[in-house]
Design a protein that fits this description.
The chain contains five helices and no strands. The chain is mostly helical and about 160 residues long. The protein folds into two domains: about 1-125, no CATH class; about 125-159. Helix 3 runs antiparallel to helix 4. This is Ethylene receptor 1-like N-terminal domain-containing protein. InterPro entries: ETR1_N. It comes from Algoriphagus lacus. GO terms for molecular function: ATP binding; ethylene binding; ethylene receptor activity; metal ion binding; transferase activity.
């Protein structure tokens, strides 16, 4: 328990490690390639949830909404680990990185379990458009039968 308390008390301290630039022999090209790649991945991981949130706000009655939120949290946390990796070239916040990775792991597992739990329902769920089409087709058949009955009545009266 002492290690946990020590870990948490130094969560934002980077005094125990050197920045990544001075660990090993990074060429400028290799270091900046790593940094730019991680920042690009982080940016994509933050744009994707923004698109998901936009989608959720534009659609009504989205089934399995909690799964969308889990995906958003999962993607944001994945992106945060990449941002941390880029920052470590200057600020070696390995403790904070470890906490972000733990949160990412927990949310990833929760997302996977939610998908496994909901997959049978997702497979059998009819999209709203398909359900509306089915209901309209059912009404149309009902109207066609009613028209046929009316024609029979008309034909029997004219005879």
């Amino acid at each position: 328990m002492e290690q946990v308390i020590d870990f948490l008390s130094k969560l934002f301290s980077a005094d125990d490690w050197p920045p990544r630039w001075v660990c090993g022999e990074w060429s400028a090209f290799h270091g900046w390639l790593y940094i730019f790649s991680d920042i690009a991945i982080w940016l994509a991981y933050f744009v994707i949830p923004a698109i998901i949130i936009f989608f959720i706000q534009k659609r009504q009655n989205i089934p399995f909404l909690p799964v969308f939120w889990l995906f958003g949290a999962f993607i944001i946390l994945c992106g945060s680990t990449h941002l941390m990796d880029a920052l470590m070239f200057w600020w070696p916040g390995y403790r904070l990185s470890a906490v972000l990775r733990l949160l990412t792991a927990l949310v990833s597992l929760a997302t996977a379990f939610a998908l496994i739990r909901d997959l049978p329902k997702l497979i059998t769920e009819r999209p709203d458009d398909e359900l509306k089409t089915y209901q309209l087709e059912k009404k149309l058949k009902s109207y066609e039968l009613e028209i046929q009955d009316l024609r029979k009545q008309l034909n029997s009266k004219s005879d």
